[in-house]
Specification:
Blueprint: H1 5-13, E1 19-20, H2 21-31, H3 40-52, E2 56-64, E3 67-74, H4 76-100
Antiparallel strand pairs: 1-3, 2-3
Helix pairs in contact: 1-2
Organism: Streptosporangium album
GO molecular function, one term: DNA binding
Keywords: DNA-binding
């Protein structure tokens, strides 16, 4: 199952352990080198969809400064799917580099 880039980045953000929503937003921005900027609506829509697919789960809830925080983490299925998608993307990138005669890691 191929993941949309946004979903892939959210799962990748959670690969180091649980994060609350703002932590996911910041990590996705860092991973994408500021190319992908998730708003709260897009993030929580993605998290709800990924939770419904059994890829993430809420592992902790707390109130900080009067604000409700939920912490999300990958499920075993989510980690497995993320690994499979990473392998697929790596193969695709390798094929593209070969076809375009690019030197890996040089951008040219």
């Amino acid at each position: 199952m191929a993941l949309r880039e946004q979903s892939y980045l959210v799962l990748l953000a959670l690969s180091d352990g649980p994060l609350h929503g703002y932590g996911v937003i910041k990590t996705v921005q860092e991973l994408s080198e500021a190319r992908v900027r998730l708003g709260a609506g897009a993030l929580y829509g993605a998290l709800d969809r990924l939770a419904g697919e059994g890829l993430v789960t809420v592992v902790k809830e707390e109130v900080v400064d009067g604000r409700h925080r939920r912490y999300y983490d990958l499920t075993g299925h989510g980690r497995h799917l993320l690994a499979e998608e990473t392998i697929r993307l790596t193969r695709l990138a390798t094929t593209a580099q070969r076809r375009l005669r690019l030197q890996p890691g040089t951008g040219a």
